[in-house]
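hey can u run this one w/ S-adenosyl-L-homocysteine bound, need the structure tokens asap thx
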Amino acid sequence: MPKPGELTFTAPPRRSKPPRHLADLTLAERREAVAELGEKPFRAAQLSKHYFGHLSDDPEQWTDMPAATRARLAEALLPSLMTSVRDISCDDGATRKSLWKLFDGTLVEAVLMRYPDRVTMCVSSQAGCGMNCPFCATGQAGLTRNLSTGEIVEQVLAGARALARGEVPGGPGRVSNIVFMGMGEPLANYKAVVGAVRRLIDPSPEGLGISARSVTMSTVGLVPAMYKLAEERIPVTLALSLHAPDDDLRNTLVPVNTRWDVREVLDAAWHYEGVTGRRVSIEYALIKDINDHGWRADLLGRRLKNHNAHVNLIPLNPTPGSKWTASTAERQEEFVRLLTKHGVPVTVRDTRGRDIDGACGQLAAAEV
Ligand code: SAH
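ok here u go:
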């Protein structure tokens, strides 16, 4: 258990790595891997089309290949990365949380949320989290390990396959949006996460072909990584988990603030906005009597106004062992009113999945 305020940036060394998977590789790397198996390089694109384009991980369906080739490619490039432990649903099946066991027994969760006009998948980037925010369940047990690119992509594809097969109420559908808001701090697992983003947005057969604008990267504010992300020139939406406009409070709510303070994270966010043109989303979990004061709404409004940002207020979701609760409806309305007065756009997040411990900050991946 990490001590209060203790941060873990690098994952503990791993005894073994997840098996290499098609989704870890670029198309060029897949061609090489296929050639090493003694197959023609064009099989890489065929295999990629089945996996990403047709969402098929079943070699029986790859009828454009000889049986021996199918078996060889499936064994070498589509190893099983995760097995299903449990799915739980609420909202009449429109919200579904999946618990997965990875090759080494590590547990992670992903959440699928179906809305009338879109399907959003909330994925995990790490098992556990090293950022230790006291109001978030994931941080409380610390960081277990980073996920590989393949392990992140497979969470999305598992959801995509379930939708395509019509297993989610509402008829067959597609994943339209992805949020890196599950377990972990995505920018602390930078390389694997950026690899996953590329696989998800690259057009078929290289990737899943989701629009970059429909992908949201959420961060506690790892400033150097935010600048680096801007340099990738991928127009993903950046969400910054701010939760307090002043350093005194943010140092305790988001302990990484002791490393990079409010001014520095906001500067990095404005830089990101300047480079990508994408409006930045400022995440603010409203916690009763902790960060919901009128003067804090005013200070937040002053810090954000005249910037291309919008505030996403999240009523605090309960987590085990925490005495904090969501703000009252009156305080929340007043907070919205004050931000609006400063000309800052605000939305209140409809938090899905609270009944199944699948909402923001509730993912802890326990087997019981
Ligand atoms: N580590 C990244 C990704 C996790 S995103 C980040 O912090 O941004 C999860 C979002 O839910 C973050 O904005 C997080 O601050 C917020 N959150 C965490 N615990 C919460 C809780 N108990 N109630 C509401 N939101 C919470």
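Residues 285 and 314 are 4 Å apart (CA to CA). anyway lmk if its weird
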